[in-house]
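Quiz preparation item.
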């Protein structure tokens, strides 16, 4: 890579190198492009745990996508002295289990946030999240079809990231059984998330919830821009008892408009300010999401279908 002197974007995905082979992988890029590189994607550079310090050299880096096994305290500390805006910690089906990886220390995250207060962290994994205590996490993304929206995940998201979280995304068509019973579904957990994480602007739900819950989420989250659900997973039902802080008019509105898909889509379109609809399973499965704004890509959140 010694001839690449004007690179702005570099993507190296699933190289799965031995640790010795990864030591000098980015040396030439560091020498030639330390002021020019803007976006760096290095997913699964190695098969095993091997800290990479090189990304901390790129002073004008905007986006870094890296796997847990290549992340370390020293790298995050260095990133605090760069202009990086988005640190995307991503694992895929080839990544080693995150249980074997050490999260970044709370002390380092506190130092890094002081040095670079505009940094946003995005955590993405296959059926598991590599939690980072103290990180300025803006996105939680779970891919795969085996993970439910569970109360413990929601509670941990609230406890750690209630003030920073902007995107909560569960991708994939579920391959697990979830009861249709209100008390066994994720409706209550999602409403708790909506109340506690008021900065949420993106919510992607892959499993069963009711039409009433969708209406309640849309009317609760004032900063919500994108609400993505599967039509096949939505139960036509008003299964919320009236709360003390709901007016009679609001409760009547929920009961009336939760009776049909078309009514739900009409009301949420009014709330969102654009034509909103539930997705087919094919659309949901092929949805491609980019949960941050790149300097090389002007869209704040990209939705594309294959």
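Solution:
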């Amino acid at each position: 890579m010694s001839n690449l002197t004007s690179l702005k974007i570099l993507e190296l995905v699933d190289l799965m190198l031995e640790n010795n082979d990864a030591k000098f992988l980015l040396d030439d890029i560091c020498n030639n492009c330390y002021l020019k590189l803007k976006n760096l994607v290095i997913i699964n550079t190695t098969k095993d745990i091997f800290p990479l310090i090189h990304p901390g050299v790129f002073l004008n880096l905007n986006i870094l996508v890296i796997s847990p096994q290549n992340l370390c305290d020293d790298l995050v500390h260095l990133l605090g002295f760069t202009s990086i805006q988005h640190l995307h910690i991503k694992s895929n089906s080839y990544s080693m289990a995150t249980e074997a990886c050490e999260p970044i220390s709370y002390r380092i995250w506190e130092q890094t946030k002081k040095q670079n207060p505009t940094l946003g962290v995005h955590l993405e994994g296959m059926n598991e999240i590599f939690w980072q205590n103290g990180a300025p996490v803006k996105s939680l993304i779970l891919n795969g079809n085996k993970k439910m929206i569970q109360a413990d995940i929601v509670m941990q998201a609230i406890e750690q990231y209630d003030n920073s979280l902007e995107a909560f995304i569960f991708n994939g068509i579920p391959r697990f059984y979830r009861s249709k019973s209100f008390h066994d579904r994720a409706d209550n957990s999602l409403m708790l998330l909506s109340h506690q994480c008021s900065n949420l602007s993106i919510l992607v739900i892959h499993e069963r919830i009711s039409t009433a819950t969708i209406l309640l989420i849309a009317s609760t989250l004032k900063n919500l821009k994108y609400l993505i659900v599967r039509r096949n997973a939505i139960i036509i039902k008003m299964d919320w008892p009236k709360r003390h802080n709901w007016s009679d008019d609001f409760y009547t509105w929920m009961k009336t408009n939760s009776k049909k898909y078309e009514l739900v889509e009409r009301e949420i379109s009014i709330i969102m300010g654009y034509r909103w609809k539930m997705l087919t399973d094919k659309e949901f499965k092929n949805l491609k999401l980019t949960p941050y704004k790149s300097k090389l890509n002007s869209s704040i959140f990209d939705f594309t279908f294959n």
